[in-house]
Amino acid sequence: MRIFTLLTICLFLAACQQEAEAPSSPPPAADAPETAAAPAPAETDLLGGILASQPEAAQARYDQRNPRETLEFFGIEPGMTVVEALPGGGWYSKILMPYLGGEGTLVGVDYAGDMWSKFGFFDDEFIEAKKTWPEEWTAEAQDWGNDDAASVSAFVFGAMPSDMAGTADAVLFVRAMHNLARFESDGGFLTQALADAHSVLKPGGVVGIVQHHARDEMPDDWADGSRGYLKQGYVVEQMEKAGFEYIGSSDLNSNDKDQPGENDIVWRLPPTLMNAQENEELKQQMMAIGESNRMTLKFRKPEA
Predict the structure, then answer these.
(1) pTM for this structure?
(2) Which end of the chain is more exposed for a tag (fewer CB within 10 A), N or C?
């Protein structure tokens, strides 16, 4: 049981999305006629300019997290209302807020309050403090934007404000489903989260999922979320059960080098590198694999 306690700690920390990132170069500006000045980067490629403006620590993950391609696959556009599950330290939030712009809205969502005790290592003080997470996250996120950034708000799964129903264009679960699935049989947390996602979306709204991907041949009890991985068939089944239509998938976040065995957990890989921080040889082996193999799935709430 001890390894599960340790891996759960890493899972929670990883969910906070506060990992280090590396620089990537912005795309070149389009050629312009000799008689006219080239358009400003913000005019030609808003998302590219935002990505290029992120800290080097954030950009370090671009080649493995593919934020441009992922957001484009999900159809995220300026002016939308987007709900982000488990936004943590804001890795994606800090991209979304300026991209959605002043006419857009970003809504952060955290775990239900009674889910925190399931981890087994959070004390009463921490759990009590979680009761004010929506207010605290909203206040913190407001400092991540600029003068034309999206407005922000927050709630926790199982306590969605009724006036938010039918207001969102998209809900994003980026590496955010494994704990919900892990504790599904002890509180129905995944079922509640997907019910909230369905309720908050407008008809025709999209759910975008990026999730550590377990191979089909792995045992079902291994791929229950406790090791970070879920099977694609399970995710599709749960989404369809919640009333969503499966639109399609992309391999843009896949990584064939990630081939975990039955004793492996996702947090052995970067950026967590569990058990490898003091072992340089093992660390280099994990770095050579890179971040986890991830499914990228798109769903839609039916129009009627």
Answers:
(1) 0.86
(2) C
